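C-alpha cells incoming
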C-alpha cells in the first residue's frame, strides 16, 4: 500500500497498451499508450489531432494516468496488487468499472465509488489473493459480453490473466505463493476440459433419446452451451496458468 507502486502498475499498463494504434473497430479511435484522442484533448483543454496522439510521450502519458486513473481508484490507499487490479481495469474500461470489479472481489456494494467502506474492506482484507482473482473474474465476465469480443477478446483475456498474476505477485511478494496459484489454475483447467468433453455426450445418454424431438433439441442446445462455457473457462485458466508460470520465472530470476 504505497505510492511507489504506481510506477510498477504504470509499467504494466504500458506493457499491454503499447504504442500508437488506430484500429477501425476500437471505439476509442486513435490511441497511444492507452491514451485516446478524447482523453488527450481533455488533458490539454483543447481539441487534438491524430498526429498529436501519435507524438504523445511516455512521460506525458504517465502524467495523465496519475490524476485521471490512479488517483480516481485511490491507488495510493489500497494494498499492492489490488491497486493494479483497479487501475488496469480502469484504464481498459473506465475507472468506475475498475472500482466495481475490485468491489465485487471484496464483496462490498459495487457502486463504483471508492469510499470509506471499500477502502476499509481493501485495507483489512485477509484473503487478498482471492479478492484479486474474483475481481479479475468479474472483469472477464464483462469483457466477454462486449460486441468487440470477437476482435479483441483474445488480447483482453491474456491481459486479464497477466494482470491477475502480476497483482498476486505484488500482493504476496512470494514466488512460491504464485506457483501455488499456477498449480490451482492447471487443476481447474483440467476439470473444465474434461467437463466440456463429456457434457454433450452425457446429455445425449441416460435414456434421453426417448424424449420428443422438441425436448431433445432443447437438451442438446443446453448441453452445447454448457460445454462452450466450460471450454472458454478452460482456455482462460490455461492463460492464467501460463501467466503465473511466467511470473514465477520472472521473480526467481529477479
Amino acid at each position: 500500500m504505497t505510492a511507489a507502486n504506481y510506477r510498477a502498475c504504470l509499467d504494466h499498463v504500458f506493457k499491454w497498451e503499447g504504442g500508437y494504434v488506430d484500429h477501425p473497430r476500437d471505439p476509442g479511435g486513435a490511441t497511444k499508450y492507452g491514451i485516446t484522442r478524447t482523453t488527450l484533448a481533455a488533458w490539454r483543454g483543447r481539441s487534438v489531432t491524430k498526429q498529436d496522439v501519435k507524438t504523445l510521450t511516455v512521460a506525458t502519458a504517465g502524467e495523465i494516468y496519475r490524476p485521471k486513473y490512479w488517483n480516481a481508484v485511490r491507488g495510493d490507499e489500497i494494498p499492492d496488487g489490488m491497486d493494479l487490479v483497479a487501475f488496469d481495469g480502469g484504464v481498459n474500461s473506465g475507472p468506475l468499472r475498475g472500482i466495481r470489479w475490485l468491489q465485487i472481489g471484496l464483496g462490498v456494494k459495487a457502486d463504483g465509488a471508492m469510499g470509506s467502506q471499500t477502502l476499509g474492506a481493501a485495507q483489512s482484507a485477509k484473503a487478498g489473493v482471492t479478492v484479486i482473482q474474483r475481481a479479475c473474474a468479474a472483469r472477464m465476465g464483462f469483457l466477454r459480453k462486449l460486441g468487440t469480443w470477437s476482435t479483441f477478446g483474445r488480447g483482453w483475456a491474456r491481459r486479464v490473466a497477466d494482470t491477475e498474476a502480476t497483482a498476486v505477485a505484488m500482493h504476496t511478494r512470494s514466488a512460491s505463493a504464485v506457483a501455488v496459484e499456477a498449480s490451482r489454475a492447471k487443476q481447474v483447467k483440467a476439470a473444465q476440459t474434461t467437463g466440456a468433453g463429456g457434457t454433450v455426450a452425457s446429455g445425449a445418454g441416460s435414456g434421453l433419446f426417448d424424449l420428443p424431438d422438441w425436448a431433445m433439441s432443447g437438451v442438446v442446445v443446453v448441453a452445447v452451451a454448457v460445454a462452450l462455457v466450460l471450454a472458454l473457462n478452460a482456455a482462460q485458466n490455461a492463460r492464467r496458468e501460463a501467466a503465473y508460470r511466467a511470473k514465477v520465472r520472472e521473480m526467481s530470476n529477479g
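note: The chain has a mean pLDDT of 89.
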